[in-house]
Amino acid sequence: MSVEWTKNAAGRLVPSELNGEKQIPYMGVGKYKPKGRKYGPTITSNADFPNDGNKLLKDLKTALQKAGLKDGMTISTHHHLRNGDFLANQIFDIAKEMGVKNLRWFPSAAFPIHKHLIQYLEDGTIHHIEGSMNGPLGKFVSEGKMKGAGMLRSHGGRYQAVQDGEVKIDIAVISAPTADSFGNANGLYGPSASGLLGFALADSQYAEKVIVVTDNLVDFPCIPWQIQGNYVDFTVKVEKLGNSEEIISGTTQITKSPDRLFLAELTAKFCDAAGIIKDGFSFQSGAGGTSLAVGEFFKEIMIKKAIKARFARGGSNKYLVSMLEEGLVDYILDGQTFDLDGVRSMSENPGHTWTSPFTSYNYHSKGNFAGMVDVVILGATEVDLDFNANVVTHSDGYLLHGIGGWQNCLFSKTVILPIPLFRDRIPVIKDRVTTLCGPGELIDVIITERGIAINPLRKDLIDKVKNSGLPVKSIEELYEEAIKICGKPEEPVLGEKVIAGIKWVDGTLIDVVREVRT
Amino acid sequence: MLNNYTAGNKGQKVRSDCFVTLALTEKGGLIIDIQSKVKALYGQRIKDLAEEILNYFGILNAHIVIEDEGALDFVLAARIESAIKQAVNTDLEFLLPFKPVNDFKPVKERERFSRLYLPGNSPAMMLNAGIHKPNAIILDLEDSVAPDKKHEAGLLVRNALREVNFFGAERMVRINQIPQGLKDLSYIIPHNVNLILLPKCEKPEDISTLEKEIEKLKVKHNVSNDICLMPIIESALGVENAFTIAKSSKNIVGLAIGLEDYTADLGVQRTQPAWESFYARTRIVNACKAAGIQAIDSVFSDVADMEGLKETIKVSKSLGFEGMGCIHPRQIGVIHEGYAPNEAEIEKAEKIVNAFIIAGEMGLGVVSLGTKMIDPPVVKRAQKIIDLALKLNLTDKNWRNKYVG
């Protein structure tokens, strides 16, 4: 079957297949509705599991062998331990030792520590990666050195792909900071505590084989069971799951960068002027420098107005926890915990609850939390004149970031991207984004240090801030201003080879990334 | 062996800057080697610019390496020119077009609550300085620039004055102390510098020496508008001469005090309550008021301590200072709030002026408010506060409606 290229609904050329798998071109927001049934793994029988519930094996290698590790399989891991994760590297060390080839690695995200795996991409142990590729892995892939093409999905899109059977996981290996021998597990306690295990939920439910690995084995029952042992085939106890210093930061610090603080303050002022910050509202802001500071400015405004928020969604940290503890927020719906205060709060405060990509983000579901949020503050590497945005590649074509929950959050009631007008001379507003990750119709406001552009579709917002004195400009004006300062950039010349596909939240292909010529 | 001439900055923390290494060669034409993180997007443009500048200075054979961290054209040009000027003797200057936004007539009478210091050899901090809306920016050629970097900083400051939009902030430059500072003037006088800060000023003769040189350059470059001066008093002798310095030129709009050097001169520690400089500060305020100019306080150097800054401003304002320097944009808001008239002050001033107007209408010789008699100087001061409040949009121009039906 020859690959055909079609223009999808966003005007991007996409192939009919990638890595030999059929692709559906993006059709527009909410347009693609799959038929059929969800994926189901093989039925199992308790007769094949120890009646006393003890599924403990002597080591990871034994577990992988028992799980039937062989050529061409899909192996999934999760990024709860972030850059402190030892497990993913160990899995492929074992695969290499066993002489297994052409594996598909399906992480919820990769970190710089996983540059260790580049050797296995080179020698064919790993065929390709489907998941975010940061730093060194992203560079390797961008330069066209990976055998297959990568596939990038949002957190919600990953759940959707597993649920819908687009990605069939053969073996899921779950790093569990605390677990019992039955496989019940949580991320709250132990030397590698990281908060929650939401990213592994789909894998536990849908993978053929599930291995739980822990360095903090407790007697049954492991409470709470964020992962239920009833899904788990094998458990393994190891000395150390990861490097605790890199798993979670001891304490989160608000940025000191005056420019980022300025952006954050302007964002909060905008939200206030637009009437978004009112009693009972909800918000989500990420852990990035600017987003974190936005939360602090929200807090100031809330105290001044004597109001509180009903809930905050997203990653938790000490600043969000302090808002919960001071009664400024009723609930934190936590997607991933970023510091020790977050972990502590989740384990002791009933108002601080863990969520998963299923509850928050899955688009093939019966609704999710992301759409209920009043305002979400996100980042982007590029935005274009149609408000389309890119979060994965840089303007020179390098694929250096994952999508995370970004695409899913675009369904919030108001989506705001505070971004500098230019970074190191490179304008952030382009006539056309290098890679399309989010359609402009879902992106409402671009806030830069030199002006605020509101999507013309949001007439309500334009009206609300009309007399606020805020520096509202058209996105074209901002674009021109950046060019005036930086000069017009040349078009980088990219190669023909597709190095990765970008999935929309419904599993359709919204864009592809091409190799960088070095 | 070839001589290498270098300019600029490199290293992990360096952004929006570049490091240029130039070697003149005998033959082989121009070899331009660009190592840049923005090469895919601006590589050709950087190369073209380098070529244009080398040609401009008549250099036909050279090897130039540009290690770039996203420098804008005005930075690249300053660095390349600086390397060239170490290699060849020339009076030529490579000037990029003067941005129209920077071509405005300076205003002498204006608030100077905040003046944001920007190290003269660090372009990254200059780019967005204006968005934080300080009353003034200070491109510093003195303490923040290493002695062997003065020339390249001069070129960068020159280019910044022509290129960077400071969004209406008063464009100040702190030159080096006299006599070295006189050499700094040619970098700035032709490029619409609004105010020159003269550090370690001790006597009126410093000002006349400075003004003579400024006048010469103004004639040479056909500059017609006045250039304001703000001497910085940083020594015991300077404090003693404060009034004569203040009166030494009509272009002096204020005196600033520099407490780090002043306390060093006294041989004492600089403390937070600042009793050691109490005399100097009050003396300077008095000299300024006597001369009819602004009194400007020293910077507050702990950028993390906003409460300390607030307290310091409270005292500063109560002594009669009308502004202070700042070293971090986050200080600007606190400084503006601190020095501007507050609500209680405005309200009191309005009541006084209102009482004065009513007394005038009723033909009363004596103005009183409640049980208190109000003297004319009190009315005058109150009127000043209202004028400032109006200018800063802190009260409405129809404020009297609150008091009369």
Written description of the protein model:
The complex is a heterodimer of chains A (518) and B (405). With 518 residues, chain A is α/β, with parallel strands linked by helices. Chain A has 2 domains: 58-130 and 167-247, Glutaconate Coenzyme A-transferase; 258-494, Glutaconate Coenzyme A-transferase (3-Layer(aba) Sandwich). In chain A, strand 17, helix 11 (340-348) and strand 18 form a beta-alpha-beta unit. In chain A, helix 8 crosses helix 9 (289-305). Chain A starts with a strand and ends with a strand. In chain A, 57% of the residues are buried. Chain B is α/β, with parallel strands linked by helices. Chain B folds into 3 domains: 5-87, Ribosomal Protein S5, domain 2 (2-Layer Sandwich), CATH 3.30.230; 110-339, Phosphoenolpyruvate-binding domains (TIM Barrel), CATH 3.20.20; 343-402, no CATH class. Chain B has helices at residues 39-56, 73-87, 123-127, 150-163, 180-188, 204-220, 236-240, 242-246, 259-266, 278-291, 306-319, 330-339, 343-361, 376-391, and strands at residues 5-8, 18-24, 30-36, 62-68, 114-119, 136-140, 170-174, 195-198, 228-233, 254-257, 294-296, 324-326, 367-369, 372-374. Chain B starts with a strand and ends in a 14-residue tail after the last helix. The model of chain B has no long low-confidence stretch (mean pLDDT 94). Chain A binds chain B through residues 258-259, 261-262, 395-397, 423-426, 449-450, 485-487, 489-490, 492-493, 516, and chain B through 15-16, 37-45, 69-73, 127-128, 131-132, 328-330.
